[in-house]
Every structure is written in C-alpha cells, then in structure tokens.
Amino acid sequence: MKTRILESAANAYAYPLLIKSLLLSGKRYKPDNEIVYSDVCRYDYLTLNERICRLANVLTESGVGAGDTVAVMDWDSHRYLEAYFAVPMIGAVLHHVNVRLSPEQIIYTMNHAEDDLVLVHDDFLALVEQVGSELKTVRGYIQLSDSDTASATELSVMGEYEAMLAAAAPHYDFPDFDENSIATTFYTTGTTGNPKGVFFSHRQLVLHTLGMATALGSFDGQPMLRSDDVYMPMTPMFHVHAWGVPYIATLLGVKQVYPGRYEPNKLVGLYRDEGVTFSHGVPTVLQMVINCEAAKSADLAGWKMITGGSAPTAALSQQMAERGIIFVTAYGMSETCPILTMVSLTDAERARPLGEQTDARIRTGMPIPLVDLRIVDPAGNDVVHDGEAMGEVVTRAPWLTQSYYKEPEKGDALWQNGWLHTGDVGSIDSRGVLQLKDRIKDVIKTGGEWISTIELENLISKHPAVVEVAVVGVPDERWDERPLAMVVLNAGADLQADDIKIHLQQFVASGAIAKWVIPDRVEFVDALPKTSVGKIDKKVIRTLV
User: 12-70 pLDDT, tens per residue?
Assistant: First the structure.
C-alpha cells in the first residue's frame, strides 16, 4: 500500500503522549474545583498541581530515579491521586499494591516488581513490619498518616508524607521521555500459581483516558461524566487504576471525592454531603451501599454509576432503577487497562421508564472508541453476529498490556495471532452489542451443550428472596458436568431448593432456557466467598462443593 510521510520542520516538537499532559486542562478550566479526602482535607486544582510537584521533589531527593519502582499501600485518598501523576511523571513506575492479598502474595508481588520505595499508610504498618524482612529490593519507606501524629512503627521511615511535602520545593520541571516508558504495574490473580504482573505505558494510559472520556461524556442520551459532575470511586485505586477514572476526572477538572477505606454508610454520607453525581463499582459493593442503613433514608435518584467486574444481576439492576440510580454496565479486565465496552442505549430504549430499561442496561455493551473486538471459534474463525452464536472474545486496542512482567511465555498465550484473548465467551448481535455468556473456565459443559452460568444466575436472582447467587459446574458421570447454585437469601426468608427450581420453570415455559438447564443442586449459604476486589470467587466455591 502506498503511503505518504511528510518531512517535519527541523524545530518541530515531537509531542510524546505522557501522563503529565493530562494535568494541563483541569487547572485551566476548573481551578477552584476541589479534591476531597473523606473528612480529612480538601484543596483546589492549583494546589493539586503544586502538591504533585512537591511529591516529585520528595521522591527524587529520596533517591528515586527513572526506571525505579515506587509502591503505594494506601486507601483511596488525595495522596494516591498525587502518586498517580508524580511517580510516572519523573520516569519511575507506580506499583499499585493490592493490600487485600495474603501476606505471602504481597511479598511475592513486591519482590517480583522490584519495589525500591514504599508509600505506606498507618493502617498497613503492621503488615509491612510483618513482611518487611522478606522484601529484597525495598530501600526505604515514607509514612502516610491521616492525623497530625504519625503512628509509631518499627520501620526505618524516611519521614511522614505531609511533613516531607511541606519541606519540598513547589516546582518541578518534569522531563520529556519515550512515551512507551512503563508508567504503572499491578498484579492480577488467576486460578492457579502466583499473581501475574501487568504493566502499562504512558502512551497507553493517555489513550485509554481519551477514549474513556469520549465514551463517558460525548454520546447522546445520559452522559455519565462531564466537567460539572462530582466523582467518587467505589473501586479501589489499586485495582486497574480505579478503572482509569481518576485520570479522566483530573483531565476534566471535576470535583473528586476520595472516601478512604470503604464503608457503605460513609460512602452514602459523602454522596449526600459532597454532592456526588458519578461513581463506579463492582455489583457486590453497590449491593452493600444500596442496602446499608444510611441509604434507607437517602435520596439516591440521579446518582450515575458504572458497574463492572462481573455481571449485575437482574435483581440488583431493578433495585438500582427503583432508587432512581442511572447505571450502565462496562466490561474489561486487568490486562485491558481496563475498559473495552460500555452500554449505549438506543433512542427507543432511553424513552422507556427507567424501570423498564434494566435489561438493556445490564448488557455487556458496545466497544468504546478505538477498541476492535471480535468473537471467534476455537480455530480463530469469526462467529456470526446473530446474538445467539457464541465464541471467545478477542480484542485489539492501543492500551492493552503487551505481556506479563517477566513471564513472556504467559504473554504469548494471552496474545495469539495479534489479538488479545480474554478467556470470555460471548455473543454479538446485529447492532454490534456484546453480551458475555461466561468465562471459558466457568461455562458448564453438559451432554455436549453449554450452559452460561451468568444467564442462569441472572434468572435465579429474579426471585424476590434471593440476594446473591453463584452457579458453578460440578462433575457428573453421565453428563460430564451439571450446574450447582449457591444462593444467599434475604434475612428471614425460608426457601427450599425446590422453590428455586419451581421459580426457574417459568423461564422454561417462556422458552428462555431448556428444562435441562435447571440446577440439580441448590444450596443456601450465609455469604458467598469474594476476591480481594469484591467479586464472587468461583475458584473457592468449587473447592466447597
């Protein structure tokens, strides 16, 4: 193919896509908007930029240089937001430590990432004191405190964060460097083995920010995030960059509210007192927030939310609609930075009452700008887009991790023939809307047919007494596998397994499912096991049945 490349002027600036560029617009357009940290502190965008410069000076004076790794162990806070920028902007790598992992896994991830400096909140001092002797590369610690008096610690800390920032210079000349330099890393846990390290470059994070900003605010209907919104995450900042939204919020200059440690009543209080309009979280967290004591008397109407991480049940979706919460589903994974798709309603769907939009709002959604997405059979051939035929979801986008850190062989398995293989099974309809059916590892193979655990969970959740449900496949001598449902009921509900099976018969009668899809076993439990980021952990469930 013939292409034309024009010669650049000798003095033209070759603009690298660096995270520092995301800071330019917020202070221009919304300098007085606030960054709020719980009930601890608040300041404006001009102060945010100054504090990022101060932190950069603290880090460099502490011996951190380009290519070094700075780990953060903190709740969602203004400090974490400052680290989102200052660490990669000096050319270092920001390691988002998952503080909910076991001590053994934290030791593994911090050694594997080769952390040089650790920013550690008072609440995690005891944990770090416990594992510190096994951290092979850490050279020092900076203590993060929410009070004027830092907690006592056995660690040899360089200083307390606020005191060090106060003593640092308020200006920093952030350099240009290769936009493909690694900016962040974190670890994703799988079904077996050690956590895997994913990493993202400045270029990838900038493009993900621009793509997501477009998807959230530029299309017709109800925009989710614009400059006059107030943002509060309910996805931990250590989890896939809080879905990338802190970068978007800072680009737009929106008021940002960081809640610290998640506690449902506190989240509702901040929503009410700070005028929050936009949040995101996994279904289990949203369920806890909606059902907490503070939410009973709060007006939640108009609260815009993105839910992801796992499919929201029909029951949760209906509950959010009844409270007036405007929600859409998004899809992605740790390896994809994360967002790949998001729900986009048609004019006809938006015209319906909110309570009648739930089926449309819980679809997996349309690929956001710059995302190319297919479903393929095991041979890699495209599967027809009729909304029924299923295949593995494969994707390309400019922000997908290129491999796993220090594990190129696993990266090769992730990437095949130039496409990232998600391990998810889905269908695509004639409009191009993706609907996930299951994880390849979770889909139930029975008598030569596939059962989608997601669809079965959704139907079971329609029973008014069901709070949560998880479906897994269990071995069966005759059929290979059969579905088992593990169900959490409302307090005081008294159901038998046959009640769930009778409930599902209506969907057999309507043709939604075949009779053989109904689970052979239904077990009632007080709670379902969850992963470190609040998703139902089917790996653990399989060990219990």
Answer: 999 999 999 999 999 999 999 999 999 999 999 999 999 999 999 999 999 999 999 99
Q: Does the annotation mark 335 as catalytic? A: yes
Architecture of the CATH domain 19-262:
3-Layer(aba) Sandwich (3.40)
Q: Which of the residues 61, 129, 191, 450 is marked catalytic?
A: 450
CATH 3.40.50.12780-classified regions of the chain = 19-262
Question: Of 335, 392, 455, 457, which is the active-site residue?
Answer: 335
Known catalytic residue at 445:
yes
The single residue of 60, 137, 188, 214 carrying the catalytic annotation is 188
Pick the catalytic residue: 61, 104, 388, 445? 445
Active site residue 450: yes
Give yes or no for a contact between 257 and 274, defined as CB atoms under 8 angstroms apart: yes
3-class DSSP state of 154: coil
Of 402, 483, 413, 495, the C-alpha closest to 449 is 483
Q: Which CATH superfamily is domain 442-545 in?
A: ANL, C-terminal domain (3.30.300.30)
Q: What are phi and psi of 224, to 5 degrees?
A: -90, -40
Known catalytic residue at 399: no
pTM of the predicted structure, to 2 decimals: 0.87
Separation between Cα atoms, residue 449 and residue 100, nearest integer Å: 37
